[in-house]
Specification:
alpha+beta, six-stranded antiparallel β-sheet, five-stranded antiparallel β-sheet, about 20% helix
Length: about 200
């Protein structure tokens, strides 16, 4: 029975459907204090779009474009989706790196920068050192609905921030759907067990 339940849980997780994704490679262009995004609005401060083949390629080649969440105006940035998400449960995944020191290593290695991210009324935060490498983070959010935002929190370096890339949001089936799937798998397992028992008795 445990195996069946685990299988049902796995199937429910796989049923999550990506409804939003952006790697910034084709939906914006590299620019300091960029405001032109297909899927986002700069709702506070400023952000820079930097990356491969540009003057501020702080990450290894192959990562394309990415967003420095603290632009070049001295005002920490906030990036918010244009898309509104309905009430429900979501898996939010993204890649985040430290500032890598910025141009001329203006962000000292012992300095930390925190970003907050929220979906509707639910929020989380991550604090990184400048040298932290690009890492994928995933969080579950259950929300009444709203937009997804990433915010460079005050107290960081005034001109360089953490680097954001590859954002995706997946809708997760409702708990009632999970329950039906689990019951379905349990039913299949029970039928298989009964058939096996009948064959054994017949022998």
């Amino acid at each position: 029975m445990v195996v069946v339940s685990a299988l049902a849980w796995s199937q429910a997780s796989q049923a999550a459907t990506i409804i939003f994704e952006d790697n910034f490679n084709t939906t914006t262009t590299q620019s300091l204090n960029q405001t032109m995004f297909t899927n986002w609005t700069v709702t506070s401060g400023s952000v820079d779009v930097i990356g491969d083949n540009g003057p501020y390629a702080f990450l290894p080649v192959g990562n394309g474009n990415y967003v420095d969440l603290n632009g070049s105006t001295g005002q920490p940035g906030q990036l918010t989706t244009k898309m509104d998400f309905a009430a429900g449960t979501y898996l939010v995944s993204f890649q985040l790196a430290g500032s890598q020191g910025g141009a001329g290593n203006v962000d000292p290695a012992q300095h930390t920068t925190t970003i907050g991210f929220s979906l509707g009324g639910s929020s989380q935060s991550i604090t990184l050192n400048p040298t932290d490498l690009l890492t994928t983070y995933s969080f579950w959010f259950t929300t009444n609905g709203g937009k997804l935002s990433f915010t460079d929190l005050s107290g960081g370096n005034p001109n360089v921030g953490n680097l954001l890339d590859d954002v995706s949001v997946s809708a997760v089936p409702e708990p009632s759907t999970w329950a039906m799937m689990i019951l379905g798998f349990l039913g299949v397992g029970a039928m298989a067990y009964r058939r096996r028992s009948m064959h054994v008795h017949a022998a």
